[in-house]
């Protein structure tokens, strides 16, 4: 009997890429149906009690439409579609959900366990993309790429940026502090090593790899990192412990003139305090990729500052992220069909 697989993709995680990788891994003797949602051209939503989605953090798709599409499928592959307890009750055939994200935050995990549904995810799916983006963000600030670009767009030739008292600095002479040494932080450190900079890492729950230790990377306490770093780049997960980690107090402990980079998550940062630190010059400049509220309001004060570079939460978006996530989801589907345990159970 053919396995029935329902795939709901979107305009980033394309359903045809999912299908192609699943067929490559499992063969063509599958009953696969696909649906493409409109994200990111339309915004995702966040926990809606009125729709029974209060235990789902962020998602895209109407619950009734999702349930109708999954129907009698035993396997469901998606990126953003919600699955609540009420939805699972209407899907008695469902046994595997493959979420092509680093965390299954669009799934009610407690309900999945109750209903005997295995949920798998793709940890680190965009780690390489975010790490590369972070290096670009650091260079944009240290080498005044943003400053020169914005001046030229206004018709200004900033020849004064060649002055010794105004020009940028090379990473080879700087100390870079990396907060968080997980999938992304470790890749950032590996890329930074090529620049010859001094690298400090702060993460109370990990040890450095032997390769990083041999390369001179130092594992230090947060206070030490803040006091010594010319660049601070943030790569922690959002937990009760790390929420608001970068605040008025921790910013005050940073080295005067520091450059701050956030390609992690918005809730890690007190943006009001960051605004004050940027206005005062204690933090020389910042590159911000994620925010507490997304999209950011058009009148948000940080949008008005000349010493900030901002991008709309795109660090993890790359073609390779799409293909890698689909490959990993397909492998989970293959293992499920073969009766093997999952690689990344949630």
TrEMBL record:
The keyword Cell wall biogenesis/degradation does not apply. Residues 136-315 form the D-isomer specific 2-hydroxyacid dehydrogenase NAD-binding domain. Residues 63-344 form the D-isomer specific 2-hydroxyacid dehydrogenase catalytic domain. Pfam families: 2-Hacid_dh, 2-Hacid_dh_C. One of its GO terms (molecular function) is NAD binding. InterPro entries: D-iso_2-hydroxyacid_DH_PdxB, D-isomer_2_OHA_DH_cat_dom, D-isomer_DH_CS, D-isomer_DH_NAD-bd, NAD(P)-bd_dom_sf. This is D-isomer specific 2-hydroxyacid dehydrogenase NAD-binding protein. PROSITE patterns: D_2_HYDROXYACID_DH_3 (PS00671). Belongs to the D-isomer specific 2-hydroxyacid dehydrogenase family. PANTHER family: D-ISOMER SPECIFIC 2-HYDROXYACID DEHYDROGENASE CATALYTIC DOMAIN-CONTAINING PROTEIN-RELATED, D-ISOMER SPECIFIC 2-HYDROXYACID DEHYDROGENASE FAMILY PROTEIN (AFU_ORTHOLOGUE AFUA_1G13630). Keywords: NAD, Oxidoreductase. It comes from Mesorhizobium amorphae CCNWGS0123.
């Amino acid at each position: 009997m053919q396995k029935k697989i329902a795939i709901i993709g979107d305009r980033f995680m394309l359903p045809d890429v999912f299908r192609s990788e699943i067929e490559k891994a499992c063969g063509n003797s599958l009953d696969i149906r696909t649906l493409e949602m409109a994200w990111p051209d339309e915004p995702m939503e966040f926990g809606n009690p009125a729709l029974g989605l209060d235990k789902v953090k962020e998602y895209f798709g109407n619950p009734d439409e999702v349930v109708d599409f999954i129907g009698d499928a035993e396997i469901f592959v998606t990126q953003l579609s919600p699955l609540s307890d009420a939805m699972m009750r209407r899907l008695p055939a469902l046994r595997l959900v493959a979420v092509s994200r680093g965390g299954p935050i669009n799934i009610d995990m407690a309900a999945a366990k109750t209903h005997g549904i295995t949920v798998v995810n793709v940890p680190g799916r965009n780690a390489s993309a975010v790490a590369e983006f972070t290096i670009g963000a650091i260079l944009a600030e240290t080498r005044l790429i943003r400053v020169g670009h914005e001046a030229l767009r206004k018709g200004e030739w900033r020849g004064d940026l060649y002055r010794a008292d105004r020009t940028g600095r090379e990473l080879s002479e700087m100390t870079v502090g990396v907060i968080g040494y997980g999938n992304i932080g470790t890749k950032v450190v590996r890329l930074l090593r090529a620049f010859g900079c001094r690298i400090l890492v702060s993460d109370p729950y990990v040890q450095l790899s032997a390769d990083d230790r041999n390369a001179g990377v130092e594992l230090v306490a947060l206070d030490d990192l803040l006091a010594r770093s010319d660049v601070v780049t943030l790569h922690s997960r959002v937990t009760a412990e790390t929420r608001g980690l970068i605040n008025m107090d921790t910013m005050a402990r940073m080295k005067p003139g520091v450059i701050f980079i956030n390609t992690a998550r918005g809730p890690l940062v007190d943006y009001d305090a960051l605004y004050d630190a940027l206005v005062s010059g204690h933090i020389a400049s910042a590159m911000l990729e994620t925010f507490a509220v997304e999209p950011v309001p058009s009148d948000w004060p940080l949008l008005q500052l000349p010493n900030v570079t901002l991008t709309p939460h795109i660090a993890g978006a790359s073609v390779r992220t799409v293909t890698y996530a689909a490959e990993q989801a397909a492998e989970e589907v293959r293992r499920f069909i073969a009766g093997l345990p999952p690689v990344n159970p949630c």
